[in-house]
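Protocol step 4 of 6: structure prediction from sequence.
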Amino acid sequence: MAGIPTPPPRPQRAKAPVTKPEPAGNDALLADNRKARFDFEILETFEAGMVLLGTEVKAIREGRVNLRDSYAVVEKGEVFALNIHISPYSHRGSADHEPMRKRKLLLHKQEIRKLIGRTVEKGLTLVPLKMYFKSGKVKMAVGLARGKKSHDKRETLKKREADRETRAAVKERQR
């Protein structure tokens, strides 16, 4: 075999790093409480985890959650979300959950202490703003809010209408 020439080595291609595909719906918005931003002036927001049952998480993945008219309260040093409607999971079998049950929110102690002090103030409340997945876990954005007066709501509507007209005018000019 001494007389047979060996072919030159092939150039090595850089291999793409193998990444595990993320499950569908990861880091996605699940529910949004748009009415809260209209009815309340949001002063500060907090990110909270939630204590959920398995059928609740599956129903949330299906988009069966409604945050309208929901709110949060601080009781005995813990924060609970009330009036969040999570419809039953479609393939539940014998496992089931109560759609409107009280759900515990997971926050840091410092944040809970801050919320206790702020919610005692007149007119401040905790309002769930949106629910989303973050790293495969259900998270909720909770806002410390003050209710808007009717004239503030009218201002919001006027501003929204002016923005809409401005966008329409810019779109017309681009044509």
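Step 5 (inspection) to follow. The chain has one domain: 29-174.
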